[in-house]
## 1
Amino acid sequence: MIVLGIETSCDETGVALYDTQRGLLAHSLHSQIALHAQYGGVVPELASRDHLSYGIKLVRSVCAQAGLTLKQIQGIAYTMGPGLAGALLVGAGLAKSLAFGLNIPALGIHHLEGHLLSPLLSSNPPSFPHIALLVSGGHTQLMDVLEIGQYHLLGETIDDAAGEAFDKVAKLLGLPYPGGAKLAALATQGKPNVYKLPRPLLHSGDLNFSFSGLKTAVLTQVHKQAQQNDTAWKADLARAFEDAVVDILTKKALRALQQTQRDSLVVAGGVGANSHLREQLNTLAEQHSFKVHYPELEFCTDNGAMIALAGALRLAQGQQDAELGFNVRPRWSLSEVSALP
Ligand code: KG4
Ligand code: ZN
């Protein structure tokens, strides 16, 4: 079954074609970074308008890449939530209109299910069950993934998400939006152990996370350093921050594996692109004999391929939206997602 996937939950328009027989056929991404950079963050209204400009272009582009016509598409998957309401509505509108015109089924997909399943697109796909560490701009969760569609939440952040913390700390250090990856790049130039930062909830005994106190600790250091002329301290502070986040994420992930006695870990979401996090997890995996799986780097952050994949797995089983009319779910818990039919 050939499925078109459309992702418009935030600041990236992603479109892809996935074939249940042949795998990923084509994908295309338009980033809105340049659009939002001048405002220092995502402006929802502008995001929606930009998705409107690019959605159809990207559909054309993936069809051309795959050498397919629209009529060869057999189902359409779109991100139904969570995300920005207006941005989601643009993708849902495009998906539902195309499905209506082509007389094929459509299905709304949970954005985080897309992230969770994205390692299935890699050359080293995970098997089920496994533990998933989902670390994006909006979520930080540990999940016991029994099967596609069966996600049991083990723990999550009680305040900021890990990616959000990366972005906020980047801003504190004067880096431009979107700061997460830039902060990680700066951290590679920093010396370790120059700053001692807290690791909130590390010893809480549960699998929850907290990052807002860490961000405040960085702010305190920024105020102390503001008088200095040189900027080397910024790299050292970025390093200390990244070390603290990586320490927390890896230790909690290990605890989740031990508590559930699972032997494989999947890392998904934008922070999963962080090379220091990957190094630490790889080391830990060797020491504790578990397997660790990541999406390809280009599928760590938001993309259409993960939505096309998640949609194809469900549509191929006969699942589809009941109504031609549509709505989106800007807030939607992954535990509410249905199991495969
Ligand atoms: O999954 P994603 O694209 O969007 C959401 O669904 O939220 O994740 C975006 C997040 C941002 O917060 C960004 O700062 C973070 O992923 N991120 C990184 C890196 N690349 C992206 N964080 C740390 N290191 C990176 N290399
Ligand atoms: Zn995402």
## 2
Amino acid sequence: MKAVILVGGQGTRLRPLTLGTPKPMVPLANMPFVSYVLEHLKKNGIEEIVFSMGYLPDGIKSYFGDGSAFGVKVTYVVEDRPLGTAGAVKNVAEHISDHDFMVLNGDILTDLDLRALIDFHQKKEAMGTIALTPVQDPTAYGLVRTGPAGEVLGFLEKPSWDQIDTNLINAGIYVLKNEVLDMIPAGIEYSFERGVFPRLVGKGLFGFGSECYWMDIGTPEKYLQAHYDILEKNVTTSVSACLDKDFVCVQGKIELHNGAKLVPPVMIGEGTRIEAGARIGRMAVIGPGCVISAGSVVEESVIQEGSTLEENVVVRRSIIARGAQIGRDTVVTAGAIVGEEAKVGGENILANNIRVYPRTVIQEGTIKF
Ligand code: GDD
Ligand code: MG
């Protein structure tokens, strides 16, 4: 079976992380996010993958190449304008064979049993089967009402509160019959969620619910939560094997100076230097090639590749993107995001979900909230 991964979105809710890096390439526990989707597919025996891309496609192509380094075969199709989720699949039709195929949103971290999904679809002889997952707030998703045999009775994208009568939503993973391609108009923007699925209700569309880990990493809060879940092994990924029995994962050689502390669960990328008196964790991921200077503290946060914290910096529940520099005695806290290669001078306080855009320079002692 072939799988189409949809990665054409702009990832606006993850800005500034997605301004220079497409969402699929944003590192999650030091690995581009979409490589978790690839490893999940491969683990379930799906090795032929089509990337449907739009926004910033080059980084994805150069990282995965023909896929052989990842044990899969990858084909790329780039849209010259966004075609919507279904239009994007129609656009790659020539790469899909006559059989059933799978479609996956590219921003989902899950350990869903894809083989069980395919089995269910084939037993029902369904036109389409949508994987379902329960969430607390369905308003941000596609609500799916099902009957006793799993038949879909209604599909409502981004429902309002008064429309909610189930907590089951579209998990962003489908198995579809090739005939579904005939329902999608060519060359125009068209979506599964507002077009294809509502039209398929009562015509062989099924929902498949199962117990599994599931997370859409589309917002900064969820991006952080996905890190915590990987560190706690709430979801099984290739990182799980690196986390030892004490929940510490050190990737290759690092410099850990005397008196520096790693508080698990914690993950440190190769070549990173952690100086005396610095404390990393709990719930921290430090990318490769970072410098965490003496006396700095990183908790419940992500520091991406090649960033530097000078002395006595505190980072809590925040994200520092690739190659940023944070000056001494600065505090980055409460959902702050510092964009790629930004330079934040010393003695600032960045809090309250502040977004520092890539390459911004903030002088010493200018922000205090
Ligand atoms: N190629 C291509 N072209 N891909 C696209 C396009 C497009 O025009 N538009 C969106 N995508 C990709 C995005 O990159 C993402 O991987 C996926 O399609 C879904 O888009 P999102 O923008 O993340 O949608 P959402 O999270 O608001 O809602 C979708 O996912 C939910 C589950 O997380 C819907 O499918 C909901 O029904 C679902 O519940
Ligand atoms: Mg999404």
